[in-house]
Predict the 3D structure of the following.
Amino acid sequence: MSQKTSGPNVAEPKLTGLELASSKFRLINPVSAPDDAPAWEIYARKRSAEAARAYNAAEAPEYEDEEDREWGGDDDTRIIYEGVHDTIKALEKECGLEDGVLGECVWVESCSLDGLEGPGFAPRNCETYSRIYSLATPAHVDVHFQYHERTRMESIEWNYSIGYKIHDLAGEDVAFRFTSCGNKTHRGRPDMRSICWAFYDDDEGFRHREWRRVEVFGFDLDQRDVLNIHQALFGPLEPLAADADDAAIAARRCMLVRTVRILLASVGIDYPVRCKEEEDGGEEENPHRNAALDWTLESSSIDQWIARGTRKACGFQLASDPEMERAGVQARKEELEYHSEYDSEDEENSDSSDRGGGRYSYY
């Protein structure tokens, strides 16, 4: 009896779990457990489907000419895509990753904007949803950025919020939600955790007699949040040794700071954060060094509270941070006192002005 041999038509074994995901994507030190094969298969299916409906950060937007690039051409959202591409690529290099590895994980799921007035300027309104697939676990992190800025005759409308949500696919299979929270919401959507937010005191309506340029803000990430985000994107973080030297401690700090910056970069925000006092190219020197658009995230350069908050959430502060915080508190206090004094004088001398209807002219 002749022995049956395998021929060219014999089907290859079907890949499952982590093997399936690894065959499709470049992963780094992926984590696998005996019961997470279904989660890795969901990961592979979801990530494979992105190309049909989302923009990938590894791809630079294409323009016909320089004028088209500066103004966005027929599709203004390409300005946002370019910002995402540039910032992710810069962070990819800082992380020491191979070209395209991080960019391939970042997808802009949805983006809408209006009021783009010229090269480099942020739009009047923008809302961006992005998704970052993990390099090491069957998970992804969704990021939402909502921004509004408009200059009027006697005031500036300004508010934004950035939120995130970790999706652990070992425990859920949640489709991305495209619901909008509107440009008057100062915090992330109810189903997402807040990263940071800010607005001017009178942004929701003139409660006072004059517009008040007093910044109200919040940075909501803490150390547990940052560790959870890092674990979701890059896998478990080994504890530092008790006798870790200064170089190891500094490297850990920079790694965690980059984790936060990757979330911001996924929605087109380039925000450098110094990890040591003498570091060049920090937030004070050039807060938007690689960004396609110059977002207003803080009302002044006196207090870079996002940088301070990021460092604190990553477990450290610079010696200059307390003084920066005090300067910011004092500046906001003086601004508030100025407007309070003006309101009091105006109430005594100009009460009749309120009876004449709206006193503010709008574009």
Summary: The chain has one domain: 17-345. The mean pLDDT is 81.
